[in-house]
Input
Amino acid sequence: MVTQKLLEDALNEAEIAETQKFLWYVTPIGIAALCKIKLSQLSSIYHEDAVKEALEVGLDLTREESEEHYLEKGWLILFYS
Output
């Protein structure tokens, strides 16, 4: 899948920010929030957490579309227009 390849390639670059629960990356598709918490502990991590933490580092993603991806490096939320 092309989207997955683009996201995986972007995760090999340096993150633009780090918050309590996420590492933030710029991708060719949009802004990606990679969850730092293991998949087995994700029951308490949601989309709203990512939007809230994005504001802490100056990213306003409140009006962006989003979708979830499960990659080799973990659970990721992709925000895009």
Observations:
- The mean pLDDT is 90.
